[in-house]
Structures are given as C-alpha cells and as structure tokens.
Amino acid sequence: MNVSKLLAHQASKNPDHEGIVTDSERISYATWNSHVNQLADSFRKLGVAKGDKVVLHMPNTKEFLVTYFAVHRLGAIIVPINAKLVHQEVMYIVKQSDAKVFVTHDALFEQVKDLPQEVDLLYIKTGREMKNWYTFETLLKDGSPEEISCDLTEGDEASILYTSGTTGNPKGVVFTNRNILTVATMICIEMTMNLKSRILHMMPLIHSAPLHLFLIAGTYVGATHVLAPTFSPEQLLKIVDQEKTTHFFGAPVAYLTTAKHPDIDHYDLTSMEYWVYGGAPLSQHDVRFVKDAFSTDRLMCVYGPTEAGPSGTLLSFDAQDTKAGSIGNRAALQCEIRVVDESDCDVKTGEIGEIVLRGEGNMKGYYKEEEKTKAALKDNWLYTGDMAKRDEDGYYWMIDRKKDMILSGGVNIYPKEIENVLSTHPEIADVAVVGVPNPDWGETVKAFVVPEGEVTDVESMCRDFLEGKIAHFKAPKLYEEMVALPRNATGKLLKNQLREKMS
Length: 503
Prior knowledge:
- 31% of the residues lie in helices and 25% in strands.
- The chain is built from 16 helices and 27 strands.
- The chain has a nine-stranded mixed sheet, sandwiched between helices. A five-stranded parallel sheet has the order 4-3-5-6-7, sandwiched between helices.
C-alpha cells in the first residue's frame, strides 16, 4: 500500500462520492483521481520521476489536493511549504531539499514571482500564463486521464515536511509511506472516520496534523474534504452549519476566537462529532468557555511532534473538564510513550523528564542531517525534546522544551512556567523568558516583555506580580521591554533571536 493508492482505491470503489468541496465546486472521487492522473502525466512529460522533489506552495485549495496526489502517483516526493514564508526562507528549502519542481497558487504568486530563474527548477503556477512559468490549468488539460499505477512500497520515501526553524534553519522531516499510513490509520480508528465523515480543513495543510491526520486519514476511508483557504470564525461557523461537517482540527486560538463570535448561537453545529485541538493545550477555564459557546462535549486534544508523524497522546472528551491542560493519559493507537531522565530511565510520578515516543509513524530521519537524526532517533524511540511529568492519575503534563530549560546555579528552571504566570497580567500583551550567560551562576533568567499600552516601569510591575506566585529562584533577574517578540511565519516564538541579542 502507498498514499497514492488510497485515492485510486476510493475512485474505483466510490466514484460518485463527494471527494472535495470548495466554495464554488463539488468534485467526486472519480474526477479528483482523473485530475491527478492528468497532472501526473504532464509532470512525467516534463521529466519528473521517482524520487524527485516537488515543492508545493499553496493554500487549502483543490489544486493543492490534486498536486499532492499527482506527485505521489509518480513516486516523486512532495515538499509542502508554508504559504507565509518569505523569499529567503523559500529559497533555503528549495535548495536544501534538492527540489526539481516548484508549484504555487496564483493567490500567492506575488510572494514568489522573483525567485531566481537561473536555478535548475521547473516553475508552475495556477492562473494566467507568465514568462518562464508553466500553467497548472494547461498541464491539467494536456495530460491523459488514463490511470497511472504507483508501485511505491510502504518503505519508500513519500514526503518531506520542514520544521518551523525556531532554533535556526528548518529541518526537513522525511516520511515514508508507512509512516504516513500508520498515523492516518490511527486517526481513522481513534476518531471514528468513515465514508459518511465530512472533514473541514481550515488549518494549513502544509502542517503534519492537518495533512497526515486528517487529509490522508479521510481519503483512506473515502470521507468528504471541505476546503477553506483561510481561517476566520465567521467562515468556520458558516461552513459547519451549511456543509454539516463532522471533524475539524484547529489550534486553540481558532476555538477561542470563534467562541467569542457574537452570533455563534445562530449557527447549527450539531453535526460535529470531533472538535480536535492541538499544538498547545487549553486551560480548564478555556475548555469550559469553548464547550459552553459551541454547546458540545466533543472536544478532544491531540499531542505529537511533526517528527512522530504526528502521533503521541490523546486527551479524551470525558477528561476535558478535570484534566484540561494535560496531553492525556495514554499513547495513541500504534504508539508508545515514556518519560525518561538523562540516563534513559523512566522517571517517577511527579518528576520531570523528556517525552520519548515509539511507533511506525516516527519519521525516517532529517533530510541530509545524519547527526541530528542520530540524536533524535535512538533504538526506534523518538526523543522529542518536550519535558513533561506524569501525575498520580497517569496524565501527562507538558512543562517546557528541553532546549529552553535554564540551568542557574545547578537548578533547572522552566521558562514556560514563568511565562504562563506573567501572561495572565492584564497589562502584558506578550512575554518570553530565556536564560542568558552568567559567569557565576551559569545562566540568569531574563524576561522580554511586550506591555499592553503604556507602562511606566515594566520591571517593577512584573516583580510585584510574581511575588508569591513563583519561587524567588525562578523569578527573572533581568527584564527588557519590547515592542514585539520575534516570531516566524507560523507564529512560533524565535527564542534563538532573543538569545543572540545577549551574546
């Protein structure tokens, strides 16, 4: 089995079933599969072959879904990249991945129209024809719909997803067909997907959770994919109401902003069977707020890094009210979890250690990064770099990233704990805590604070607020006021840039 065959199988078995729904089209599985063959045939005529890398730079559109499967059908390797990346970031991935083809959407063309043409690359875009750019529509029209058989095995490489690069240049995470099929199967079973499921895709499909867990899983069972190029609370409510969708994955902010929509009670959301959130936990207060606003008890949290497929843990419906903020009490199907110390021994209840995961969803490795692969994968266990502890009820609680831990005077300090407290201050808009070099203590805790409005003395305000809320040894000794914190295209904080300010 391979990823390409999932679509071909559904086109044969359920040809007239809705495969793709956009705001203007409804496309059956048979038509979707036919378009994939047409595009794959044109790619093949352009010289695209097994193992070639194809960079996919698109929002959630039908063209994304056609291109994704067309690349797989030829045995080539798909490299989806974030639509918000700037020129330099795009070119880094193009070169690092050894890409042969670059495919973009007309809606994003302004961002990439000046990519260097001297690069040995085939350029393709949707929309009207441009110099040196092939047009998607022409390639589709000129290709044959005759079925192309994909002979990839489960062990063959299928895709490369790039990490967000919060600690430097992004790393290319290589997945085989087996890796992707493993996590897709997990979601199909854990979240009861079937032919009647209607999956709403509003989070960018270039990320592993929307892509592997929901697009591939849904295709596996012949579900309908409802696409929206961008997220907005209004669109989310409207689409669920009109299309009677059953599954949605979103970041916590998607739920919190939608829950505040003044007309949320005017929409029928009862079709939804799984409201899934991930990327960060929701607090118990936020969970209650979202559940009340959405009138649902079908909220579920998933945890798992990109390198794990993603797979990891689940926080079920019935635990949301009492254990929200945790990442659940068990590993997902076909995955194992441990929390270990520096000697790879399991830590005791209540002690902090690193989460390690084992399962066939784990990546093959980092592209052209042998040493980093060896550091992350040991004896089939993925070392996530996520620090956590397990409570007496068996629930796992994330503490911080291992790389962000501060060692001051021989004591481990976790910045996230401090940030969580400071972020509750009504006059703090954003905050980041890092360790800066100290000749006597090793590191000193420093807070970078973005105030909400005008604040006379940020340091005094923070010190007073933290008094009695965290231990004195954890409290920042240094403060710096910022207009904004450095973040990448996906909104992740770039703490490496803050550390560089101090070096």
